[in-house]
Design goal:
The protein is mainly β. The protein has no helices and 3 strands. The chain has a 3-stranded antiparallel beta sheet with strand order 1-2-3, with no helix packed on it. The two termini are about 15 Å apart.
Length: about 35
């Protein structure tokens, strides 16, 4: 899974298996939570 301009970050307040994908598009910020 590859997203252009997407940043993959690990959530500190969530378990290691929980990752958040922060994608900024058109000045808008979309946060996808993957469990």
């Amino acid at each position: 899974m590859a997203l252009s301009g997407a940043q993959f970050c690990s959530s500190r307040s969530a378990p290691p298996s929980h990752k958040q994908i922060k994608m900024e598009t058109g000045g808008s910020t979309f946060i996808f939570e993957l469990i």
